[in-house]
Amino acid sequence: MYQAVSDHWIHVNAPLEGVLPFMYLDSKGYVTTGMGNLIDSPEAAMALPWHTSSGARASNAEIREAWERVKLRSDLAPTGGGSFAGVTSLRLSERDINETVKAKLEEIERDLLGAYPTLDNWPADAQMGVLSMAWAMGAGFPKRFPKFSHAVNALLPDFELAAVESRMVDPIPRNAVNRTLFENAAYVLQRNLDPSKLYYPNVLVKGSRTSGSSGGGAPGPFARSMPLKLPLALVGLAGVAYATRGLWWPSEAPQSTSAPETET
């Protein structure tokens, strides 16, 4: 993935997922931490560097006890992850959360390359969009989104169509973000803009859809770098995320690239 995607990942996704330094149950009752990082077994929890309230490194026994205590509190799951703050005193540091999120993101990227072999050549906004879909649904989602996959695996990807076909059933706020990301990607290709730059949260094209290939300009760098063959075919936590953003991630996001003049 482009560096801009990695650099901005938490800032784009934290309002959608929330960032919590303790264990909690997600809406399905799975033990989770960080920015939606699944740890639904004691062993998975033990792989992370938990610390006690005194700052000491937690033992495996302490981690297991905390995990089991959280797992039993299914009554709190409907009220959001923030409700678990007092269930256990074990915490992850901001650095540990960031590293955990980064490791998961890189794992998802590797898994997605099987379904989308040209992913590394997509504009940064499209990379962010497909990783966002996988963060919410898992890297196996392409099998359930054949129209989306067909659009992005075309010789010249149709990110306008991908914007429409990226819609997920449950994560409504994330749907709007993903659609903007793919519409931005379409504009980047049409206008031959720098694909390595992330233009989101700028909206390059206003309206529900861009106007196909009518944007003009020569084929972008993606089209020139494509092989000459057809490829085979991350709002209950949002409030917590904003309330704790000064504690768990940098207060200022990396600077996004200034958007070019938008179409109406």
Note the main attributes of this structure.
single chain; 264 residues; mainly alpha; 2 domains; 3-stranded antiparallel beta sheet; 10 helices; 3 strands; 44% helix; 5% strand; elongated
What does this structure look like?
- The protein is mainly alpha-helical and 264 residues long.
- The chain folds into 2 domains: 20-104, no CATH class; 113-236, no CATH class.
- It is built from 10 helices and 3 strands; from the N terminus they run αβββααααααααα.
- The chain has helices at 3-17, 42-46, 60-71, 94-112, 124-137, 146-152, 159-165, 172-190, 221-225, 236-248; strands at residues 20-25, 31-34, 37-38.
- The protein has a 3-stranded antiparallel beta sheet with strand order 1-2-3.
- The longest helix is centred in the middle third of the chain and has 19 residues, at 94-112.
- The radius of gyration is 20 Å and the shape is elongated.
- Helicity, in percent? 40-55%
Estimate the global geometry from the Cα principal axes. elongated
The tally of helices reads 10
- Overall mean pLDDT score? 83
Number of domains: 2
Cα distance, first to last residue?
30 Å
Structural class: mainly alpha
Low-confidence stretches: 208-253
- What series of H and E elements makes up the topology? HEEEHHHHHHHHH
Count of beta strands: 3
| Rg over C-alpha atoms, rounded to the nearest angstrom | 20 Å
Report the β-strand fraction as a percent range.
under 5%
Give the neighbour order of strands across the main sheet: 1-2-3
Main sheet summary: 3 strands, antiparallel
